[in-house]
Amino acid sequence: MFLTFPIMVIRVNTVENVVEWRWKNMFLIGIGSFFLSFVWRYLIKKRDEGTKKSEFGETEKTPLIQRILKERKIFIPTLIIVSVFALVFPFVFSLYQTNIMITGLIYVMLGLGLNIVVGLAGLLDLGYVAFYAVGAYSYALLNYHFGVGFWAVLPIGAGMGAFFGILLGFPVLRLRGDYLAIVTLGFGEIIRLILENWNAFSFGPSGIANITRPSLFGIEFSVHNATIYLYYIMISLILFTIFVVNRLQDSRIGRAWIALREDEVACQAMGIDKRATKLTAFALGATWAGMAGVIFAAKTTFINPASFTIWESIIILCIVVLGGMGSIIGVITGALVLILLPEYLRAFSEYRMLIFGGILVLMMVFRPGGIVPDVRRTYRFEGIENNHRNNRK
Amino acid sequence: MKPILKVKNLTMDFGGLRALDSLDLEVFEGEIVALIGPNGAGKTTFFNCITGIHPPTKGDMLILPPGKKQKRLNGLKPNHVTEHGLARTFQNIRLFPNMTVLENVMIGRHCRMSAGIAGAILRGSSTINEEKAVVRDSYLMLEKIGLTDFVNEFAMNLPYGAQRRLEIARAMATEPFLLLLDEPAAGMNPQETQELDDLILWLRENENISILLIEHDMKLVMSLSDRIFVVDYGKKIAQGTPEDILNNPAVIKAYLGEEMDA
Fold first, then answer.
1. Which residues touch A137 (CB under 8 Å, ≥6 apart)?
2. How close, in Å, is residue B176 to chain A by CA atoms?
3. I need a labelling partner for A149 at 20 to 30 A (CA). Which of A94, A134, A290, A390 fits?
């Protein structure tokens, strides 16, 4: 209350040279902070109770989302509802909504890609947007110079992303933690500055316009239909991404990534090739960013370096951290919340970023594991146990 | 008996500090050898050199795996050393805390598996079989070490003694012929130490491995080891059977200091 006093209560009217005292505002802030402190205390108390419970070994209530995932009876209907909703979305809602959703889905893809690098392999990458830019510019330039279509460039963009991922991977093989973050940050900026200043190559800050939208076997769509088409492309690519990431997670290579995140020295001592593991993480992470970049270019039909600032990297990182590192459902929820929330908060105009920031802070204080924390796979052993019991002694 | 590890003239300098000074050491097949010495004597540095974490300044390190060709360890990366059959545990436990116990052991199997990225995504029959085999082998390893109660627990939630044992299980999963244990009994109570004693002997009998261990618990060292090497300030000051070492004046001096002359 006292901190906000000079800003909220005193207003100097420079035209009439009088000081206005707005006591009503102070009253409102008082009430507001009073209630907020109650909410804060309540949440802290709840959190303490939670930790106490788990300390005493009581079974903690599994969070709603994890319960949904575990029980088939709830999981399958939920899945059906979500997929039906996803399928009919563009026909129920307006073009504007569909466009927002496509953007949201692009970020889902970026989040899932960065999740491999940050969430699984534990390599803090602050220059992830560079690969996004690489993908977008691959499509824009190939389309501009040679008229190559969307479907041909999609794998090329992915490949370019992977190539740049390895390019970044080599110099940072020995780095970790803060140092790695700074180098990747620099890398992201280098790519952006090159795109901004190398006019002959990338047309500089003015960007590239009139990129063709994706077509279906040579059939061109109107703007409206093309958007819907792009929406479905996006949905299927997301499904593909989930499929791949899910399989990688529980594979030999996925476990190696997690081990690398947990302890680099022990991981090497257990026979894991650190170099190869890091490089595959960078390359595979960047692949999705490259693909997302191609889609972004196809969606907006115009790109310039301003779309690929460090702010984008940070948003994508927020998606991964807020959603839950290493958890696929978490990252999807995180992306949709972080991208759609500011859109739907537009009603609150200038307060929307304030609300947005507030939600971020609250989330990190009360759910540091993210919205849907990662759950490790569990295995059952009924068969083996019976055969080999009492092997020892 | 033939030697399986030969270290000759090993020297390791950290800047101006000589951590290891022309150390010679041999381990024979089926032996349990202990490496003892006061704190800071260079025991862990010795392990780090053999396992490729530090490249030594001078000297030769050779392994002669039973039934295989001899191999020089100098210049090998840690993961290759492990692939050649040397596995280690760490003085300060280095498990993967946010992975389950089973997954920790499965990581140990990593270098004996072959599935690549394409295999993981397509999940063909060979990958599926490999995964199944890994889960089964890892579980059997946990059964041998006696950790089956914790299979799906996070490694960080394990009691201390179990964490130590899990490190051994993880190292054993890499199929070593020589197991390097860095203070396996540190921080254990007498009962846990006794269990560890049994476990190490059991491993030697049933898994066909030799063991080189660093340990401060003299009771454990004396009861387990066939031979003991004593190092102080990076130099070997004594070697021999436990009885020899107990009566060696140089060892007593290193541990207890010299007698004051009045």
1. A195, A202, A208, A293, A297, A303
2. 11
3. A94
